[in-house]
Design a protein that fits this description.
This protein is mainly alpha-helical and about 725 residues long. It is built from 31 helices and eight strands. About 45% of the residues lie in helices and about 5% in strands. α25 packs across α27 (about 610-620) and α30 packs antiparallel against α31 (about 695-705).
């Protein structure tokens, strides 16, 4: 099933997560990876790479054998709950309460958990309720009563013996704890209620419980070993609603992990509990997720140890700038690529320099795997309706189109495979034709729509960059659509200035590039939208924005005219640009906006005397998407379309169209195109002009690449789109 597509080796009986959690999906014990200093594992990959799907698969496979909790840090529900009492709650405390609440009812080996350390801190911040009366505070504290239910009902200790921690404190309800406060002269709020709560807590605690609170809350900043001071500081910091609040939230997360550690480390826990508990944090790149990751990474950097497995998601390839203090990574975190074999050894770096080590030293990056050719074919074949013999031409053509348009990105493969189950590829089709295939999502009451619209919704609109300002949310897809024809930042800025004219707040090409990187989209040195599949979705949308591809032609004309206004003679393109010359850049946009004959004339005139430079320029000009509508390039490359002019011009015309077919990367090339390339280049090599003989070597090189469906001009995004065997 697609839920586990591509993850078998990660979630299997001997897979990475079985070893990380210390137990297999069937319940067998596994020698745990790492520890006692555990890395935080971050699943890295952009939209559609399956991070959420993997977290859910881990939860589904392991949660009955080890206590594994799935939390969505991007959900608005935590902020919504906190809004009811902003002085006593935050999104961070609400997610901690939810995690603890689920673990309180866990029914696996060893039974449920209790959270006395976390409860104590939550009880203190409850004094910040808007109505500061003892009754209001007691009502707020009652929200957390379930965190101690296990011990009330079963009398089992949280790492301190049978009930010692809570003995006396929970003989009645939580409300009984503060019932006596209502009749006292408490003085000004909030200090009086805080002091009364502290007295009630410590008076009723058993000696072991008191000693444990002294240990943990006596270590709170500024407590000087005094737990009551630490708890007062915790409540005060939480009220500060700034960095101090984040410190308080971080400490509460530590208390939760210490409660879990105590449940395993006690004599009872050592005998009854197996494996390691886990917190799976989806959308950990969100502000809430980053705060939780920062908390655990900072604690572990300072020497705090626990066995809680923390697995989060990260869109950026480097895990996130917060891991590196906003600086470029000096030493990148260790990474695990499942396709390369087993997980790497991991240990925290100890070659400390001046200042604290970067948080990245506590991280292991797990690169989300692309689908292999076999996995991709299996998924498309599984969904195909059997309307032709097994191994038919149409299915092979669809397999190839899905492979190229997805690049192996799992979500794109799943959607395209579902949409093309009964799709018939038109004769000599462009891969983008399958983007119009209708898709109806299972269990979704929405009407049927094209798979392109579904993918743009799921990969772009549902995955907006975290740092994208709200005023740009409605523009984001349209801006990316126009930027699909851009190559470098200069090119992109021309488009952005035009399409944001009249807007007060504008994005620059650098802004958009950073936002794309933050979202996890890869970069490419020759294409501003560096992911091939995303670019094809956007190109497809651009051509359909206005009738007859008017938006497409307008953008290319804009760029053609921009570079026509730049001096070309003797001037190379700026350093770092996608083209070696301004002329090549201009001709590229002219080629795809109706200027084919002009480009052929330019190429025919500039070939003699400079064959190697000319070939490089030809490849740059031809690395362009083909507009919608009928595609006569193959016929024109084979000389089946009549073209006027001398032999050199006619041959250059054919060669341009053959190279264009190879460089667009949205249709098979194979032996036929390879033979066409070789024939045309050899024809040129025997013509009478300076340097003609040098083209024979090029004929051999290019035909070999085309026969194996490799790009003639390699770039980051096209290099991995060769034949998937």
């Amino acid at each position: 099933m697609c839920e586990h597509l591509g993850f078998d080796e990660l979630i299997g009986e001997q897979g990475f997560f079985a070893r990380l959690l210390g137990r297999s999906p069937s319940g067998g014990g596994r020698e745990p990876l790492y520890g006692p200093d555990l890395p935080v594992v971050l699943l890295t990959g952009g939209p559609g790479m399956g991070k959420e799907r993997l977290l859910r698969a881990v939860h589904d496979r392991f949660a009955t054998k080890v206590p594994v909790i799935y939390l969505d840090c991007g959900s608005p529900v935590y902020a919504d709950r906190a809004a009811a009492e902003p002085g006593a709650r935050s999104a961070a405390t609400e997610v901690l309460v939810e995690a603890a609440g689920r673990l309180c009812t866990w029914q696996g080996t060893g039974g449920s958990f209790a959270f006395p350390r976390l409860f104590t801190g939550l009880a203190m911040i409850a004094t910040g309720v808007a109505d500061g009366s003892p009754n209001a505070v007691a009502t707020e504290i009652e929200r957390y009563e379930e965190l101690a239910q296990r011990q009330r009902l079963r009398g089992l200790g949280a790492g301190l013996g049978a009930g010692d921690f809570w003995r006396g404190l929970l003989g009645g309800t939580i409300r009984n704890l503060l019932a006596a406060l209502g009749g006292q002269a408490l003085g000004p709020y909030p200090a009086a209620v805080v002091n009364a709560l502290l007295d009630a807590l410590f008076e009723r605690l058993a000696p072991k419980g008191r000693a444990e609170l002294e240990r943990i809350y006596g270590a709170y900043p500024g407590a000087a070993g005094q737990p009551k001071h630490g708890l007062r500081n915790l409540a005060a910091d939480f009220q500060a609603d700034d960095e101090a609040r984040e410190l308080a939230e971080s400490f509460l997360f530590r208390a939760l992990r210490e409660d879990l550690e105590a449940a395993y480390a006690s004599a009872v826990g050592w005998l009854r509990r197996v494996g390691r508990p886990g917190l799976l944090l989806n959308h950990a790149e969100s502000p809430l997720g980053e705060r939780l990751l920062c908390a655990v990474l900072t604690d572990r950097r300072s020497g705090q140890r626990d066995r809680v497995v923390i697995v989060g998601t990260a869109r950026r390839a480097d895990g996130g700038t917060f891991l590196h203090g906003g600086l470029p990574p000096v030493v990148p975190p260790p990474e695990f690529r499942p396709a390369d074999g087993g997980p790497p050894d991991w240990s925290r770096r100890t070659d400390g320099g001046a200042g604290p080590a970067p948080l990245a030293d506590g991280v292991l990056l797990l690169r989300m795997p692309l689908l292999t050719g076999d996995q991709l074919r299996a998924e498309t074949e599984r969904r195909q309706q059997r309307v032709e013999p097994e191994g038919g031409t149409n299915r092979r053509r669809i397999d190839a189109a899905v492979a190229r348009l997805s690049g192996g990105r799992p979500h794109t493969v799943i959607r395209l495979a579902a949409a093309t189950a009964a799709f018939r590829m038109p004769a000599d089709a462009n891969d983008r034709d399958i983007l119009d295939a209708p898709l109806r999502l299972p269990g979704n009451g929405d009407p049927e729509r094209s798979v392109a619209d579904a993918l743009l919704q799921e990969l772009v609109l549902d995955k907006l960059p975290v740092r994208l300002r709200p005023e740009h949310h409605d523009q984001w897809l349209d801006l990316l659509t126009h930027l699909s024809v851009a190559h470098d930042e200069e090119c992109a800025d021309v488009l952005l200035r035009h399409h944001q004219a009249g807007h007060v707040h504008q994005l620059t090409a650098h802004d958009v590039s950073e936002l794309l990187t933050d979202t996890g989209w890869p970069a490419c040195e020759r294409h501003f939208i560096g992911d091939f599949g995303l670019r094809q979705l956007l190109v497809h949308r651009l051509y359909g924005l206005r009738p007859g591809g008017a938006a497409w032609y307008a953008d290319h004309h804009l760029l053609r005219d921009h570079y026509a206004g730049r001096p070309a003679a003797g001037e190379d393109a700026p350093s770092g640009a996608a083209f070696r010359s301004v002329t090549a850049h201009r001709m590229n946009h002219h080629l795809v906006s109706g200027g084919v004959d002009d480009v052929v004339g330019h190429l025919a005139a500039t070939l003699p005397g400079r064959p190697q430079e000319w070939c490089a320029e030809l490849l740059e000009i031809a690395q362009a998407p083909y507009p919608g509508g009928a595609d006569a390039r193959r016929e024109r490359a084979q000389g089946l379309v009549a073209v006027d002019g001398p032999a050199l011009r006619r041959t250059v015309d054919q060669l341009l169209h053959a190279v264009w077919l190879c460089e667009e990367r949205t249709r098979p090339t194979g032996k036929e195109t390879a033979e066409t390339l070789a024939t045309l280049l050899r024809l040129l090599s025997i013509m009478e002009f300076d340097g003609a003989r040098q083209l024979g070597r090029t004929a051999t090189e290019w035909s070999g690449l085309a026969a194996n469906e490799q790009p003639l001009l390699r770039c980051t995004c096209s290099a991995r789109l060769g034949r998937r065997r």
